[in-house]
Amino acid sequence: MVPPRCPLPRERLGGRAVFGLLANLYAVESARNWGAGDCGDLATLVDFAGTIGAAFVGVNPLHALSNVRREISPYSPVSRLYRNPLYLDVTAVPELVETPSVARRLAGPAFQRTLARLRSGAHVDYAGSWPSSGR
Question: Does the pLDDT value for residue 5 go beyond 70?
Answer without folding.
Answer: yes
